[in-house]
């Protein structure tokens, strides 16, 4: 028996995986009632945006045209068509992305950075964002010779973009290198936060080798491919010159077999392969950083570490002698914990409450916590809202889409002041405990408000503020007059200020190239230095005579407590210095405005040849896909014409936002009768139509959803040997409604789901539309994962269903089932048994599984596109039963074990592979089988 349905579907799924990796069309968030999309067109760009952002859109286009003029000489190429840019304000964090597929496109988040991480070190945040993303477009779009000729035939076929098939440290590193202007003093390579990260890498282990940086998955530091890649391009520029870098990029652009040609081109241009260049690069780094490391170690003054694992920078707040911390270690549920000194035992942490997505927290005099949380909405927006929590009353939400990222209580504990970024502007809001809110202040230009704190008397606040064409300084805002007063005017990044009880201001700054803790006396302008660390000191909190802060180490941010003393003192006036950046644009470029239309960007941009040959058929075809610039409409089509059989296999999908989806698939399969005669086979055609409407209703932070679905499956014998009746075929058409709940969480250091519950209840009917079946069916399932200590999880699941007598029966057995479907599922996997081991109109299934993380490899095989990530192990037990009414069948049980390995393909595509063995416990039907299972994670 040969089944080409599986082969064709596997091919189509593989194509979708590849294309999704390269051309993930992320739709803009669902339109609000006041959203009117517009388009502005300049010489080299089209910018799509909500109409209320017209002023920002014109400014962004002017910046883009300037960036284009500056960068094209380096790349010596430019896109043949205008680059599509989309400006959105759907996220309460700073980011953006770029891809050359299916056309050159850039997404801009209208959200300026407000915290230290490198992004804050820019002349203007929008200029830095556009420049970085446009480097990606010019870089990945490069072609020459055979690749350029191939695009003339096949269009923008992904395989004809050699620079897409390079490690992300090359693409991201080059963008960071070219976003940086050391002469003027901006860009991540000019920032002390990037120098801090590399300094700690070199001090701890003399830096990563090439194999480690090529696959940046979960290891510290986060974004190591940006860090190592940027310094690597700087090394190439210092050693070989930018002309050699440009020559390498252009010569590699002609490689049709990209992965294996990287070292060959490097040897031709630089005289060395990338492994040899990397060894020289590490020596270059050590020579540059070692003197500073030795000097800092000789004068190190730091606090005592608390017994908590280092990791990402944590959120902390203080009340008297109590320190609260949001502990998120990547292997357990995030929790707000209270740190206190226990007699004879030192610092001890007590967990108070689990949390998720915390952006900021502050504690009132009565112990009530104000927590800003980032909530992922079904619409596609990621917005912050404020919640209150107390040990007696629990949680209470007091805002809805207010977007306050940082919050601070006023002394009366009845009101809060919060900051937010909307339309690219900074704002301060006054929020009451009952949820009433009003805006206090809004910036009128590119001024960016960073972290802030409220004075003990509640009459003023101090904030880190970035004024136009300057760096980050401390300013004081009188809450009565709403007038700002400058406290500092330096080239340092002064941030994370906190008032001390005596009115002085504690903060973090990088006056000497390293972030340390300082205290400013506003009345006199005198400053005391309290730390001298090797990494960096951040988020200081006054702790009843001590200072709690976070020290950047080679393993992450470590919470420490310091008994402060003045190491040095100086006048803030002695550090005076200004950037006086030139304006990002000198004039507004001409552009034409029109209503947005999806049609110009929806046309197919490439054609991928397909073929399939076997004993029964010879098929040739094409595949393509596309989306519009805003991402509202996404489609894919694959079609093959069988020249032996004179029929077609076709698969087509269409998505609208994240709400509507449509799939139509026509496929043929063949069954050999094994009679020894010619043409002794059946050919069966299946037409499958699946339509879904998700997010009909959403609730509980959009974790509860109502879905509608339609599944129409028609099968018939298309060809049979002479003299054999082909029959009428059959058709099943199910219309259904489903309710689902999903609050599952993924943790960086845990295999699979880290914690949470998925549940659904599905009703489907054969009687709404024409169907050869009749009656209704109900199904329900619940899966829950327990977060065990460490990197271990325990999961259980139960599922069951019942169908009317005239409905299609359920079946259990085999390795592959339809368990992942919401609608139209009637085949359920039970490893250790053959397919359809039991069938019936009733079924149930139960599962118990234990997973344990074993080790982290996170290394690549040189420059070849193959690497390994995490390795884990799982053991499981499952029982299931299917039966017809009036029947009694014994339940079927199985046990198994599997080894899970993250296989990394093409440097970025993580393919979890599970190699397992299953043993069916039934004496008659059970058997022992090995299996290989894969899934795709991005």
UniProtKB/TrEMBL annotation:
SUPFAM superfamilies the record matches: DPP6 N-terminal domain-like
Keyword check for Signal: yes
Matching InterPro entries: 6-blade_b-propeller_TolB-like
Highest taxon of the lineage: Bacteria
Signal peptide span: 1-25
Keywords assigned by UniProt, alphabetized: Signal
Name of the protein: Bacterial surface antigen (D15) domain-containing protein
Organism expressing this protein natively: Thalassolituus pacificus
Taxonomic classification: Bacteria, Pseudomonadati, Pseudomonadota, Gammaproteobacteria, Oceanospirillales
């Amino acid at each position: 028996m040969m089944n080409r349905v599986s082969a064709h579907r596997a091919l189509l799924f593989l194509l979708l995986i590849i294309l999704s990796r390269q051309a993930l069309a992320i739709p803009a968030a669902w339109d609000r009632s006041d959203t009117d999309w517009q388009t502005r067109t300049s010489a080299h760009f089209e910018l799509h945006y909500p109409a209320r952002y017209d002023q920002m859109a014109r400014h962004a286009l002017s910046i883009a045209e300037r960036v284009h003029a500056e960068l094209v000489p380096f790349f010596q190429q430019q896109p043949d068509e205008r680059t599509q840019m989309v400006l959105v304000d759907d996220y309460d964090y700073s980011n953006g992305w770029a891809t050359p597929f299916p056309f050159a496109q850039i997404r801009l988040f209208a959200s300026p950075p407000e915290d230290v991480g490198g992004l804050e070190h820019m002349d203007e945040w929008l200029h830095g964002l556009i420049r970085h993303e446009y480097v990606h477009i010019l870089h990945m779009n490069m072609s020459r010779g055979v690749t350029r000729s191939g695009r003339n035939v096949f269009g923008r076929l992904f395989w004809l973009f050699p620079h897409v098939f390079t490690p992300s440290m090359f693409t991201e590193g080059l963008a960071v290198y070219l976003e940086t202007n050391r002469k003027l003093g901006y860009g991540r390579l000019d920032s002390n936060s990037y120098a801090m990260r590399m300094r700690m890498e070199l001090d701890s282990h003399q830096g990563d080798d090439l194999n480690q940086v090529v696959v940046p998955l979960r290891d510290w530091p986060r974004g190591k491919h940006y860090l190592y890649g940027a310094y690597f391009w700087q090394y190439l520029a210092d050693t070989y010159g930018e002309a050699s870098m440009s020559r390498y990029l252009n010569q590699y652009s002609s490689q049709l077999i990209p992965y294996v040609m990287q070292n060959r081109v490097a040897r031709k241009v630089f005289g060395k392969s990338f492994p040899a260049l990397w060894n020289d690069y590490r020596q270059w780094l050590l020579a540059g950083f070692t003197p500073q490391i030795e000097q800092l170690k000789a004068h190190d003054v730091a606090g005592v570490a608390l017994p908590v694992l280092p990791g990402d920078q944590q959120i902390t707040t203080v009340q008297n002698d109590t320190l609260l911390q949001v502990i998120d270690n990547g292997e357990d549920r995030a929790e707000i914990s209270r740190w206190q000194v226990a007699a004879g035992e030192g610092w001890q942490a007590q967990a108070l409450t689990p949390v998720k997505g915390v952006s900021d927290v502050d504690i009132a005099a009565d112990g009530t916590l104000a927590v800003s949380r980032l909530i992922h909405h079904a619409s596609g927006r990621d917005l912050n809202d404020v919640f209150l929590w107390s040990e007696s009353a629990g949680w209470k939400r007091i805002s809805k889409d207010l977007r306050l990222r940082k919050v601070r209580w006023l002394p009366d504990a009845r009101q809060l002041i919060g900051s937010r970024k909307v339309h690219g502007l900074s704002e301060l809001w006054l929020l009451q405990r009952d949820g009433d809110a009003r805006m206090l202040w809004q910036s009128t230009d590119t001024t960016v408000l960073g972290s802030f704190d409220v004075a003990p008397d509640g009459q003023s606040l101090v904030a880190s503020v970035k004024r136009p064409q300057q760096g980050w300084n401390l300013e004081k805002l009188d809450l009565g007059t709403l007038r700002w007063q400058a406290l500092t005017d330096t080239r340092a990044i002064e941030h994370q200020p906190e008032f001390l009880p005596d009115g002085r201001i504690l903060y973090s700054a990088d006056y000497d190239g390293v972030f340390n803790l300082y205290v400013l006396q506003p009345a006199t302008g005198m400053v005391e230095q309290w730390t001298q660390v090797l990494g960096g000191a951040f988020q200081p909190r006054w702790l009843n005579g001590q200072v709690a802060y976070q020290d950047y180490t080679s393993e992450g941010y470590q919470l420490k407590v310091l008994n402060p003393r003045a190491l040095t003192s100086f006048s803030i006036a002695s550090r005076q210095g200004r950037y006086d950046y030139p304006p990002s644009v000198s004039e507004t470029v001409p552009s034409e405005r029109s209503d947005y239309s999806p049609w110009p960007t929806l046309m197919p941009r490439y054609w991928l040849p397909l073929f399939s040959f076997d004993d029964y058929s010879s098929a040739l075809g094409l595949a393509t896909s596309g989306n519009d610039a805003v991402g509202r409409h996404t489609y894919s089509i694959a079609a093959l014409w069988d020249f032996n059989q004179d029929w077609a296999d076709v698969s087509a999908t269409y998505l609208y936002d994240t709400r509507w989806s449509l799939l139509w698939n026509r496929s043929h399969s063949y069954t050999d009768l094994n009679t020894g005669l010619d043409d002794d086979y059946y050919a069966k055609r299946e037409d499958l139509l699946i339509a879904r409407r998700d997010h009909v209703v959403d609730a509980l932070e959009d974790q509860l959803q109502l879905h509608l679905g339609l599944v129409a499956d028609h099968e018939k014998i298309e060809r049979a040997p002479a003299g054999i009746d082909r029959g009428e075929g059959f058709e099943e058409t199910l219309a259904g409604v489903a309710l689902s709940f999903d609050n599952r969480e993924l943790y960086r250091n845990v295999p699979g789901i880290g914690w949470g519950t998925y549940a659904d209840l599905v009703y489907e009917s054969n009687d709404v539309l024409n169907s050869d079946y009749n009656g209704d069916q109900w199904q329900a399932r619940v899966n829950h994962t327990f977060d065990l200590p460490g990197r271990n999880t325990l999961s259980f699941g139960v599922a069951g269903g019942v169908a009317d007598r005239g409905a299609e029966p359920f079946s259990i057995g085999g390795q592959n089932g339809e368990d992942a479907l919401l609608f139209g599922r009637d085949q359920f996997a039970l490893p250790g048994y053959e397919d359809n081991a039991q069938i019936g109109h009733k079924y149930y299934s139960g599962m118990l599984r234990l997973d344990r993380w074993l080790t982290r490899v996170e290394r690549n095989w040189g420059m070849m596109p193959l690497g390994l990530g995490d390795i884990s192990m799982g053991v499981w037990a499952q029982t299931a039963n299917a039966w017809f009414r009036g029947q009694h069948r014994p339940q079927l049980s199985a046990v198994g074990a599997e080894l899970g390995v993250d296989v990394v393909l093409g440097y970025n595509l993580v393919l979890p592979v599970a190699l397992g063995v299953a043993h069916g416990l039934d004496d008659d039907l059970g058997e022992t089988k090995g299996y290989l299972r894969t899934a795709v994670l991005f």
